[in-house]
Amino acid sequence: MASKTKVVAITEFMTSVKRKEFIILTFLLPLILVMSMVIPLFFMQTISHQKETLGVVDESGIVLPILKERYTDYIIKEVPSPEEARQLLENNIISNYIVIPKDFLKVGKASYYSKVQLSSFSSANINLERILSDIVIESLLSDKGVSKETINKVKSPIEMERITVTKKGEEVETPFSFVGNYLLPLFLFMSIMNAGGYLLNGIIEEKENKVVEVLLSTISPNELLSGKILGLGGLGILQVGIWISGIVIITSFLKIPLVSFEKGIIIMIFFILGYLFYSSIFAMIGSISTSTRDSQQISAVVSFLVFIPLLLFFGIVQNPNMAFIRLLGMVPPFIPTIMMMRVLLSEVPIIDIVLSMLILSLSLIVSAKIASKIFKVGILMHGKKPSLSEVLRWVRG
Amino acid sequence: MKILEIDNITKKYNTRIAVDNFSLNAESGKIYGFLGPNGAGKTTTIRMIMGIIEPDSGKIKVFGEKLSESTKKRIGYIPEERGLYRKYRVSDLLHYFGKLKGLSSEEAKRNTDMWLEKVGLKDRANSKIEELSKGMQQNIQLIVSLINDPDLIILDEPFVGLDPINTRNIKEIIYSLKDSGKTIIFSTHQMNEAERLCDHIFLINKGRKIIDGPLDDVKKKYSKNFVSVEFQNKVPNLEDIGIVEKVYYEGNKAEIELRKNTNYNDLLELLMKRGDIKKYEISESSLESIFVEVVTDGI
């Protein structure tokens, strides 16, 4: 590395690492994100500890004692009639009630009344439905003289283990990995955007405060640009390093399996290539822009482009290796995020990894060449924003 | 020794010719004034000397060599558009530029301290640039350009926006640089400053060099020799005197423009034969009037 490039890289790194925004993004944001996931979970648990009361109008005469015995999500209160139950609900003495009709065992129908809209996914509801259906199954089968073991077998006939087979043929139990699979690419994406943003602002600042001319009288535009990209890249790697150590600590504490070392390396390569690709794009934007405001507008569009794959996350989860996703994973701007997610979620064919890395590296070389040409001319321009044809001429010239 | 040789450089922007077949030479231990109206091509020329932009044709040699990274280190530069990192501390900024210009960390530190002492800003070493007054920032900008003890110093409009005290400080620094054998080229449109400081003048207009020579020669060559005379009585007719170009009459007084390469003493002798002279005064035209005339007439 040329010594001047090194001086620029070190200075960029040292000044950015001390910035408030960097510290906030690195430490506070993950904390907020983790909290925003942990707090609702915590609430859900405390709420379910503070039991509410379920009124039961049992016209069948069989269900109430079994519910009292097995259903622990609510305090069970016996209510003689539906009218009385409605009264109690309106006076907020009970929070919801269920009416079991006389012919419940035959028809299998019951009505649940509540003031709040019910989620069919709530575990309290699922439990209630399961207990009720167990009651029906038990009564129907024991009437026919079926043994207790058979009845229990009927109540839960199967148990499914979910196992992912890795390349090496190892069998790993699939962890609950939504958080990691989604958050890791999201964070890497943020890190790229953050370092790219610093690069962009740095270029515009130097343009706006005219310091660039002094710089260019001692250092070539290429040295300046490479120094900036390297310094800020170091910043991104530091940031990701901090996050990964955090993840390693947390996952080992929670005993959640981490991604394999190999996958980690592949993801880091995509991260670094992605950063270099996007920083050259940001350098172009910075060179063309004449003020912080118009650079922000252009970079917002770019950030959105990069963000698209993250919006496709739920589609990718369904099938990380489907043709459309594979194709999208070969389009340069989407390669880093798509491939990171695919690698995290599945065993990606090696050809896809090699091909996408190759495409990304080639587009990176091209974009860096274009960026350096635009940078060379654009950084000395102020006042009027150049037209597209002018910019194209710089690239050709 | 030849410090800077510019040989027929031309620079076009699209169809507009910014610098047209421009040449100049500069030697060590001299102060050069690079003059010209706004938009004449001064900044473009300076940027080409600094290697920030490249000429379309022609050659530039510094210290007898082609422009390179090693020659760049020996040139100090203050651009017309001043710029410093506003958030940096003074000492960090000077340190950074020192290292960019190839100084070791220790040298950068030493030179920073030395220069801050010299301009009386030692106590502001830890201030942020944005906390300094404009004059102080200008001084810091000067230090940036001198931090690595360059042999050629190029100052684009160094006096713009400075109060008289800071102007004097910078002039003193320029003189001391000259005394230590450095070459200083500065562009300005303040002709009185140029007249006081420069040994040599380049004047550029519309991208072309119009004047190139030692200050005294330029003044001799381009000044129109004016004499104002006052007679005891009404001024006699003077136009028939051979060395007189033009006469403006005004009662007992007259402004006489002499022909080129003539002598004031000869005129005085001739005038004494025409009448009783009360006052005889030679008024050389200033650099400013030369500038205005040359630029507007497009000589």
UniProtKB/TrEMBL annotation, chain A:
Residue ranges crossing the lipid bilayer per the database entry: 22-43, 182-200, 229-253, 265-286, 298-317, 324-344, 350-371
Record keywords: Cell membrane, Membrane, Transmembrane, Transmembrane helix
UniProt-recorded name of the protein: ABC-2 family transporter protein
Main location: membrane
PANTHER family given in the database record: MEMBRANE COMPONENT OF ABC TRANSPORTER YHHJ-RELATED, MULTIDRUG ABC TRANSPORTER PERMEASE YBHS-RELATED
One Pfam family this sequence matches: ABC2_membrane_3
GO molecular function: ABC-type transporter activity
Lineage: Archaea, Methanobacteriati, Methanobacteriota, Stenosarchaea group, Candidatus Methanofastidiosia
GO cellular component: plasma membrane
Compartments, record wording: Cell membrane
Classification via SUPFAM superfamilies: Periplasmic binding protein-like II
TrEMBL record, chain B:
EC annotation from Swiss-Prot or TrEMBL: 3.6.3.19
GO MF annotations, alphabetized: ATP binding; ATP hydrolysis activity
Keyword RNA-binding: no
Keywords of the record: ATP-binding, Hydrolase, Nucleotide-binding, Transport
Domain of life: Archaea
Top-level EC class: hydrolase
Name of the molecule in the record: Trehalose/maltose import ATP-binding protein MalK
Lineage summary: Archaea, Methanobacteriati, Methanobacteriota, Stenosarchaea group, Candidatus Methanofastidiosia
